[in-house]
Amino acid sequence: MEKEFIPRITSFVCKWCTYTGADLAGTSRLQYPTSIILLKVLCSSRIDPVFLIKSYLKGADGVLIGGCHPGDCHYETGNYHTRRRFKILTEIFSTLGLPKERLRLSWISASEGPKFAQVSNEFTDKIENLGPNNARENMFL
Amino acid sequence: MGKKNKSVLVVGAGIAGIQASLDLAEMGLNVHLVEESPTIGGRMPQLDKTFPTNDCSMCILSPKMSECARHPNITVHTMANIDSIEGDPGNFNCKIIEKAKFVDPDKCVACGLCEEKCPVKIDDEFDMKLRKRKAISRYFLQSIPSEYTIDQEHCLYLTKGVCKICEKVCEANAIKYDDVDKEIELNVGAVIMATGIDAFNPIGFGHFGYKRFKNVVTSLEYERMLSASGPLGGHVVRASDKKEPKSLAFIQCVGSRDDSIDKNYCSSACCMFAIKQSIISKEHIKDMDISIFNMDIRAFGKDFDKYYEKSKSTYDVQYIRSKVSDISELSNGNLRLKYVLENGEIRFKEFEMVVLSIGLEARKNMQDFAAKMDIKLNKYNFCRSDGFAPLQTSREGIYVCGGMNGPKDIPESVVAASGAVANSVKFLEVERQDIKEEGTNEKNVIGDRPRIGTFVCHCGINIAGVVDVKNVAEYAANLPNVEHSEDVMYACSQDFLDLIKDRIKEHDLNRVVVAACTPRTHEPLFRETIAEVGLNPYLFEMANIRDQCSWAHMNEPEKATEKSKDLVEMGVAKARDLSPLKRLPIDIGPGALVIGAGLSGMTAALAVAAAGQKVYIVEQEKKSGGNLRKIFFQPDGKDPQKLLQDTIKKIEEHENIHLFTNTVIDKIIGYVGNFNTSIQNLETKECTNISHGAVIVATGANEHKTKEYQYGKSTRVVTQVEFEQMLLNKDFPHGKFKNVVMIQCVGSREEGRMYCSRVCCTKAIKNGLELKKIRQNVNIFICHRDIRTYGFREQYYTDLRDKGSVFIRYSPENKPKVELLDSTDPDSKLNVSAFDPILDREIIIDADLVVLSTAIDALEENDILAKMLKVPLNADGMFLEAHVKLRPVDFATEGVFVCGLAHGPKDIDESIAQSKAAASRALTFLSKKAILAEGTITEVDISKCSGCAYCVDVCAYSALEIDPEKEVVVVNDALCKGCGACVASCRCGALDLRGFSNRQLHSVFDALELT
Ligand code: FES
């Protein structure tokens, strides 16, 4: 029998908005798959694209970045940097022919528990359709 | 003014007393907290979950309890009563009697041996007598203080002179049979009373069969049944046959809204309590049938209606408008309810279990207590306070908060507590305090091999109900560098905190990982705990296995257990790389900026200024006063315009308050203690810069502008605010009139505005009563969905009903219809048709005037301000506080506070209490010269820096600069906020963020098995 594919989605989120939104999803008992694993940073701008690339190369089936809505970053302009870096990263992915669909950036505020659950569910569904990330086997670096 | 004092007395250590004590202590005052029972905590520990977030009650309370117990400025006196208060404000002499505990608290280690061996069993009050405890015991598992006490009335040795078993088994020699009551004299400047509330005992209500029928319980008993730490371990079974009930009925208003037992008031919290219990019950037993028998559902608080709607849509809870007249017991233990519907029809329905939603009442001994303290009570024996001075007792210098002066829910109690503190400040010496040195006896761990302790929390069944906690703890034990791993019942209980400290010493641990709820609420507590035994607080890491695991994956226990293991492993990986960090002081500048000069803003400003601080109020209108300018009557007869004039006068006369009207905020920069705001006068265009230490948001809200019900098309359709103006002028359009129809919930409680505007029911009734005063013969019809006259407002509802006004309930699917008799003439009379459930048919009213109770809308400008201040709004556009239960006026962003309508709809008394609370919270910062900043800031390795200055551009705080000589970047520690934007931008790997370093983050996700 084939093993059930349980996606692994590494999620880098800022402490002020998305992490809090994820807690709210929990206190509201909104259910989403266990595929989503959060790594907390203080601001999404801390997320070095290196982490994202490394996640992908290590075999993460999906990589999610969560931050405050544009304009709401706790550190004034942090998420603007995040947005730019993310754009560049997806372009690099396209250029190299890597599946940029495995990357996702979402703005989820502290009060958006439902949105957090929804994004987690949607993204997991999408990754399930894409199937496992075989980067580890295929990549030769 | 008379004498001022550095000490203050707080009576009652429930959540209100705890909050008041913490605020006062943070202002540098000496607090004596007196509590009658053997533990602090009050009612909250008895609750399983809290509405409307389903947060675990004990989990959110316990950090506050610990903080209170360990605060150097707070002295807790448990099992103590206040005997007398003599003297004047600023100089009260109080006598406290501390009862004998018969156990030496300094020796008792709370091992529990005595309790195990004690032969005397008595009813456990904490568990609503559903369980037994011993004559030597502690009040509940997480009691603070945790030491045992002997129940004098039941102890065999103390009553009959035999036994002494506890003394024999106690290895600590802590038993002290010759202990005696102690008298303590205190001199204090002010007293804050928070003695709390009792629950109604329905034993006298024979027809409900309480205590006669086994399967009828009160809501408090049921709460204990739901609780994981309760007598049933969270597994609800009915008493008669120990079977899971498959159907459950809640009967509302048992002991409330009932004139026949002298309780013509609403207990305010029971509707939400029942909704919460039904949702939680459904989570325990999925196929349970739940009905709530009610007169009205009063879900009037912030986000309550959404919770109510969710109970219907997601959990399929049935709401039956009726009065239950009788319950009978069937031979199988089931209960048959006889109830009368609104239209008079009698029905019967069978349930396996019944919960009586009992009301709240004044504490039993209130009359004696009030006489002793020389304070006055209202007719229901609650402490008497005034609508415009809601936190004041009748005796100057003594303030009241919590349930003592009327039923309140948790956030309202917390608000009142902080508010009472603001009131008391005028008799207290609040001085700007210096920072306390920290880390002097810190253990140096640099260079030592990591020795990690992991602790995995059950959180009752919150985690353990889903995740195999033991398995996770065992897994953790085998991870590299983990020297010790164990699972614990409640990680945040005082016992456990002591246990962590013991384990650190025992195993020489130098890093600690706790897998439990969420670092958002509990990290500070654990950090402080490890600091107490000499570990740097940053040598701590938390794994979130509750909010982000067990609660989010309730139906997938195995996967959740696996995920928990991952999370713990990641935590351990991070812990391995943690290093001690230093916290630098941030100077706190004085002064506050208050945004908005309505009643709330002005009240907050006066309260802050009373502590000797400068206050700047900015108001965009030409005149101060806000919405209060449009309120002319209060149902209790008080004059709102007098309140307004008095407040404006005080503001004008106060030398420390500067009011800028017709002025807007252009920009706010900075952070706690160091805000810099530029404001601009709309007329002169003149700009002013203000520096201040705190911000209070009091921007208010608007009356909703509706297009429904012919508003704007007919001159005979007005809003309540417009109607109030007419009542004031006694000038009504179209002269004589006979029939007035009021329509409630216009714009509220429906798609787009799924919240209750809270004040409109009382406002309609108030205006109705006012109208009856001037035109006795006018008929008033009120079309409503629920009448939500909570608390003592219920009285006005009965008054208006007694005057013959008609209340017609409508459903949102079938709203009343308003039509002009002559559709071409805006002055023409109106036809209002509505379905009356009492008459069970449609009625048509020939109306001369229709008054709409329109919703309260959030200001559109909130959005701009929220962005400037970096604080969130909720889905309705109102400001979202840091925690809906326990931090109701704070934001997660330090130094910024909210009050009044900007936070959500509320009445005058509530706005006053909340603005005082915001002031008091601001003062906890402003009364300090400095606070400690987080240690998580950027550092630079100059050997790698190429001086490219990319990071300098990225930094939003100008914390980075290029050293012109060395041509490398330098970090200004005081300015760095620790976002890490610069680190991610550094091309040379020269920058790193302490506490979230590249190495730590790489270790964390290296630990995560990805394939
Ligand atoms: S703090 Fe959330 S994105 Fe910056």
List descriptors.
heterodimer; A: 141 residues; alpha/beta; Rossmann fold; 4-stranded parallel beta sheet; 43% helix; 16% strand; globular; B: 1011 residues; FAD/NAD(P)-binding domain; Alpha-Beta Plaits; 7 domains; 7-stranded mixed beta sheet; 5-stranded parallel beta sheet; 51 strands; 24% strand; binds FE2/S2 (inorganic) cluster
In short:
The complex is a heterodimer of chains A (141) and B (1011). Chain A has 141 residues and is of the alpha/beta class.
Protein described:
The complex is a heterodimer of chains A (141) and B (1011). With 141 residues, chain A is α/β, with parallel strands linked by helices. Chain A has a single domain (9-135), classed as Rossmann fold (3-Layer(aba) Sandwich), CATH 3.40.50. Helices cover 43% and strands 16% of the residues of chain A. Chain A is built from five helices and four strands. Chain A has a four-stranded parallel β-sheet. In chain A, strand 3 (62-67), helix 3 and strand 4 form a beta-alpha-beta unit. In chain A, helix 1 packs across helix 4. Chain A starts with 8 loop residues before the first strand and ends with a helix. The mean pLDDT of chain A is 89. Chain B has seven domains: 1-99 and 181-196 and 363-430, 3-Layer(bba) Sandwich (FAD/NAD(P)-binding domain); 101-180, Alpha-Beta Plaits (2-Layer Sandwich); 199-361, 3-Layer(bba) Sandwich (FAD/NAD(P)-binding domain); 452-576, 3-Layer(aba) Sandwich (Rossmann fold), CATH 3.40.50; 592-604 and 611-700 and 859-901 and 921-928, FAD/NAD(P)-binding domain (3-Layer(bba) Sandwich); 704-856, 3-Layer(bba) Sandwich (FAD/NAD(P)-binding domain), CATH 3.50.50.60; 934-1005, Alpha-Beta Plaits. Chain B is globular and about 90 Å long. Chain B has 1011 residues and is an alpha/beta fold. A seven-stranded mixed β-sheet of chain B has the order 15-21-16-17-18-19-20. A five-stranded parallel β-sheet of chain B has the order 5-2-1-13-23. Helix content of chain B is 26%, strand content 24%. The chains are: A alpha/beta (141), B alpha/beta (1011). The interface between A and B is large, with 53 and 58 residues.
